[in-house]
Fold:
Amino acid sequence: MRGPPLYRKLLLACANPDTADAALAQTAALAALCRAEVVLLHVAEPKEYLDWAEKHQYDRVAPLPIDALRSFRLPYEPLLARLQQAGVDATLIIETGEAGSQICRIAREETADLIVLAAVDRGFWQELLHSSVSGYVLRHAPCSVLVVHWDPSSGPGG
Structure:
């Protein structure tokens, strides 16, 4: 006798498309196995928006925030296409704000069964200087969390 699928909806949270390969591969495999839907999420933090605004400060027409969100979406569309080509029902969400709290909020709103985080391995001093999104999500997530590590020394994509 076969029960209900373990996971129906997976939330893959990525901070950088260049470091998402390992997490993307594991999410696609798990989604195919469970016939689960995937929500690919990128949270543009305030610094990312400010960097975008600084690049566009000399535009003749003042840029609208929607243009920034569109530009944040572009690097993640190939990841979305890879999921869809693997036969996975996937959507892309771009949000702004503090990454940890937004990931937990979207997971709750989307009723995700599992959050998959693409995490970059950092050294001791870097970890002390930067807040850990994965640490926040592990403490506050409304569901299970899988952290897929990427080692920067292994090159792009892990």
In short: The chain has one domain: 32-154.
